[in-house]
């Protein structure tokens, strides 16, 4: 899951879910700029400089780390299907 944040007067804040999804789409497609409607306002972002334009509000992309892989076990997996030896 990736989210986007903008830096304003109160520090870094998440942008709305819809805006975040549109920013992520534009980022993945390699678009240098993207404009989105947000609560009746048109917002434009420069993804090369990572700023909201016009202005100087910084923008950043936050990715959650992948969850750790399940631990590997040396024991064979049990088959719990009806009729299998492990379910008897």
Care to describe what's here?
- This protein has about 90 residues and is α+β, with helices and mostly antiparallel strands.
- It has a domain of about 55 residues: Signal recognition particle alu RNA binding heterodimer, srp9/1 (2-Layer Sandwich).
- The chain is about 15% helix and about 35% strand.
- Strands 2-1-6 form a three-stranded antiparallel sheet, covered by helices on one side. It has a three-stranded antiparallel sheet with strand order 3-4-5, covered by helices on one side.
- The chain is elongated and about 70 Å long.
- The model has no long low-confidence stretch (mean pLDDT about 85).
Strands, count: 6
> How would you characterize the largest beta sheet?
3 strands, antiparallel
Second CATH tier, the architecture of the domain at 2-58? 2-Layer Sandwich
- Which oligomeric form is depicted? single chain
First-residue to last-residue Cα separation: 41 Å
Measured by DSSP, the beta-strand proportion falls in 35-45%
Kindly list the characteristics that best describe this protein.
single chain; 88 residues; alpha+beta; Signal recognition particle alu RNA binding heterodimer, srp9/1; three-stranded antiparallel beta sheet; 1 helix
List the helices and strands and how they pair.
Blueprint: E1 2-8, E2 11-14, H1 17-29, E3 33-38, E4 41-46, E5 51-53, E6 59-63
Antiparallel strand pairs: 1-2, 1-6, 3-4, 4-5
């Amino acid at each position: 899951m990736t989210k986007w944040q903008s830096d304003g007067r109160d520090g870094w804040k998440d942008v709305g879910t819809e805006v975040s999804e549109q920013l992520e789409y534009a980022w993945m497609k390699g678009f240098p700029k993207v404009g989105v409607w947000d609560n009746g306002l048109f917002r434009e972002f420069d993804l090369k400089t990572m700023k909201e334009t016009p202005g100087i509000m910084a923008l950043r992309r936050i990715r959650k780390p992948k969850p750790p892989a399940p631990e590997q076990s040396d024991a064979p997996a049990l088959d719990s299907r009806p009729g299998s030896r492990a379910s008897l």
